[in-house]
Amino acid sequence: MGNVKLVDTTxxxxxxxxxxxxxxxxxxxxxxxxxxxxxxxxxxDFTSSTHMGVAVRNFQEDPWERIRLMxxxxxNTKLQFLGxxxxxxxWEVAADDFMLLVYRRLVANGISRFAISDPLVDTKAxxxxxxxxxxxGGEEIVGALTYTISAVHDDAFYANAAAELAASPDIDRIxxxxxxxxxxxxRARTLVAAIRAxxxxxxxxxxxxxxxxxxxxxYLAAAETRIDALQTAVxxxxxxxxQPSAMRIVAxxxxxxxxxxxxxxxxxxxxxxxxxxxxxxxxxxGSQNEFDAAFLRHQIPGGMLTTMTRQLDxxxxxxxxxxxxEEVDQVRADLGYPIMVTPFPQMVCGQALYNVISxxxxxxxxxxxIRYVIGRFGRPTAPVDQNVKDxxxxxxxxxxxxxxxxxxxxxxxxxxxxRSLGDEEFLLRATMPAExxxxxxxxxxxxxxxxPDSRPIVKLLQEFAARKDISDIVIDKPGFRLTVKNxxxxxxxxxxx
Length: 497
Hints:
Blueprint: E1 5-8, H1 10-19, H2 26-39, E2 43-48, H3 49-59, H4 63-73, E3 78-83, H5 96-109, E4 113-116, H6 123-136, E5 140-146, H7 155-166, E6 173-178, H8 185-199, E7 204-208, H9 215-224, E8 229-232, H10 246-255, H11 264-281, H12 293-298, H13 302-314, H14 321-334, H15 344-357, H16 367-374, H17 386-393, H18 396-402, H19 410-414, H20 423-429, H21 434-443, H22 455-466, E9 472-477, E10 480-485, H23 489-495
Parallel strand pairs: 1-2, 1-8, 2-3, 3-4, 4-5, 5-6, 6-7, 7-8
Antiparallel strand pairs: 9-10
């Protein structure tokens, strides 16, 4: 039994899994940052390019400023950026020099830990990104082994991939990334042991989701087989489709003979804060999910299944859902078993839908599936079925997509923008709609203070300000009197004699 470290996922993956990445603003996690810095986490899973895009699009907040503020507020804990390699915010593949600039700006603003999660477990692509991140100044680089269940993703497959990553001086740690929560306790024992045997002294972490209720037990099984770190979230941002609860995992690890060197009081304070925040903001709390054996077969993420069901309702084809789910299995096999993590669930489920409602399988093929077969998303884990490949590549549209130009180099992209534009704003404008970045700039600096306990009062005052029939509100109690005037110009004009 050994010492197990924790990597906290509350503000990034917990937020994204439970609240769609739209639950937390800069001021809300900045307020608790000094406490988080005292917990003793090995690192904080802090942001990703998707997370940065949400900050701009939904909150009009500068994601670069967000990193700087958090770095200043918690100087003792590594902040992590999760990336898939050669893309930033947009799903379009970016040029090498563009990505090098991205990584340099992330390092300059305070990101010291980078996790690279290639959705096809393409080790060459991961190592190419790792070399670039090291050149940019990345301190700790973590290579992901994205977990799934298929005819080709066995323990030997992952152990071989881990050995390739571990042999590189640009990879400091390795982690098993289980985005669908498929890893069972039994498989965790054999998988961790197989990987351990091939990576030498490099640390190994585990990241899983509670989607079908397996992750808490799989974490304990992995700890038995000597895992170095487990990724957890706190309070309402844990469980559900997120990561296991940090407090519960710590208690269970200690009860089974492991040590976890954290500040229990600080962890309790952090958990209490996010619990109060979720209640004040009306955010749902992750709850314990029951085991769903069917998910092990189709592996369709919950959000994707909901969207597909809604689309079938619109088409009055809900009764064909069982056929489509069955076809998902076959399409995945046809395409070489892509792991059901974005963007591949959208491709596989879309193709399965077309195959079921069309007169013939693969008579209608979306552009993204064609790009996948061409190789735009990397090397498929297993070869694409030759008959399916031939049919897709013989389409006129495939010939058009084969001639798509490569990603524009940095210098060419720069010509589209004002020369005085700073690197950070340029990177946002190169990957996002101009009006969204304009709105962020117009909003100015992000507010710094937040108190969940004052949220009901703030809400009351906001509702008061929206009223046209009240000119002021008075709070009066012994020794205290507060008068708040509603300075609505239209109201003043209506109220004047």
